[in-house]
Amino acid sequence: MNTAPLITPSRQESLGVLIGLVRMELVRGIEAEIAAKGLDLRFTQFLILKRLAALGPMTATELARAVELDGGAMTRQLDQLEGRGFLRRHPHEQDRRALRIELTEAGHALWQQLTDCNERVLQAAQRSLTDTESKQLHDYLERVLHALRDKN
Fold it and tell me: What pLDDT digit, counting tens, does each position of 96-143 carry?
């Protein structure tokens, strides 16, 4: 796997480009960690497993929103993960038209293997920051996110 940066940010890079570059490097790092474990899993599938592990069973629509995928792409990812035994779909208790998606035992076991991949990459990303700076960065990014989502 080629780990050379595709784009090197300039000193005056825009916030949007810089955030995009950081995300790209996080994705690259997590996929490299997953590959080093000998697992055949893409970042989007990693995110699906992460959301289900953190939030529990949900509908495909809720999950698609949580990982920012369109319906068709979500269906393809769910088909692949279900085919590999990592998740299952079952009827929703209150809505006969909907299905709930949940991790299987194999999915939970896989997530346990992936948790340390996630932590290593996030720690490496913040290694040049003090604890205070790391907390501040998190706070700033949350505030930016809330400001962008606030339509009022």
Answer: 777 889 999 999 999 999 999 989 999 999 999 999 999 999 999 999
The answer to whether 16 and 45 have CB atoms below 8 angstroms apart is: no
Q: How far apart are CA 118 and CA 46, in angstroms?
A: 9
Quote the tokens at residue 77.
Answer: 């990812």
Specify the pTM.
Answer: 0.81
Rounded to whole angstroms, what are the CA distances from 8 to 13, 18, 29?
Answer: 10, 10, 16
Residue 135 structure tokens: 């907390």
Polymer length in residues for the chain: 152
- The b-or-e profile of 32-71 (16+ CB within 10 A means b, else e) is ebbeeeeeebebbbbbbbbbbbeeebbbbeebbebbebee
